[in-house]
Amino acid sequence: MSESGRPRPARKRLLEAAARRFYADGVAATGIDTITADAGVAKMSLYNNFASKSELVLAYLDARHEEWLGLYRARIERAGGPRDGVLAVFDAYADHAAFAYEHGFRGCGLLNAAAELPAGDPGRGVVRAHKEEVERLIAGHLEELLPERPTEARATAEHLAFLLEGAMARAGLEGDGERLRHARALAATLLDRL
User: Fold this and answer.
1) Could you read off the pLDDT of 162-183 as tens digits, one per residue?
2) What is the C-alpha separation between 181 and 70, in angstroms, rounded?
3) Residue 27: its pLDDT value, please?
4) pLDDT at 4
5) Residue 62 CB burial class (10 angstroms; 0-12, 13-18, ≥19)
6) 8 Å CB contact between 65 and 130
7) What angle do CA 52, 57, 59 make, to 5 degrees?
8) DSSP letter string over the chain?
9) Measured between alpha carbons, how far is 113 from 34 in angstroms, rounded to an integer?
10) Is residue 145 within 8 Å of 82, Cβ to Cβ?
11) Residue 158 in contact with residue 152, Cβ under 8 Å?
């Protein structure tokens, strides 16, 4: 049920169930029956909203990307300049890690899904586009911070993107966001030296 007391549309319930199950159990291990049961809808509802499981996976990946962008936008609204903008990217990842996941934090849901998809799968392209956008956001803030040094700004953006991804991987293995907080502190130190 929605906050208004009306049932949520089946598509929304299916996406919410897919997000829970894909993150907790993995894409390959999660069958259609599990998703429809978790969503409380008939199997036909899934096929009325998605042509296939692959299409549902793509919708999940798109929704996960939009969810992260929402966290980033909330952080950037409070940013006091380009340095804070870079750190807002790290904070948005830490915010994602702080969600109350069913089986605890398991790292980046996008990368977890991509790791299960075969080479050439469209879902891997969605994940790649997300990671490239994150690096572009960092680069944009750094270009503003270093307007006379665009080459250094791009190289530093790549460096910080690697730092962020490594921290996210370790945080997922360790089951909490501590590595992300540490990576943010390292990024802040690096930014102070520019």
Assistant:
1) 999 999 999 999 999 999 999 9
2) 19
3) 97
4) 56
5) middle
6) yes
7) 95
8) --TTSSPPPHHHHHHHHHHHHHHHH-TTT--HHHHHHHHT--HHHHHHH-SSHHHHHHHHHHHHHHHHHHHHHHHHTT--SHHHHHHHHHHHHHHHHTS--TT---S-HHHHHHHHSPTT-HHHHHHHHHHHHHHHHHHHHHHHH-TT-HHHHHHHHHHHHHHHHHHHHHHHHHTSSHHHHHHHHHHHHHHHT-
9) 17
10) yes
11) no
List CB contacts of 177: < 8 A, sequence separation 6 or more: 94, 97, 98, 105, 171
Which has the closest alpha carbon to 26: 102, 92, 97? Answer: 102
Element housing 22 (H / E): helix 10-25
Crossing angle between the packed helical segments 178-192 and 150-174, to the nearest 10 degrees: 160
Which residue type occupies 161?
Answer: A
- Residue located via tokens 């999660």: 30
Two tokens, residue 19 = 């997000």
Alpha carbon distance 146, 149 (integer Å) = 5
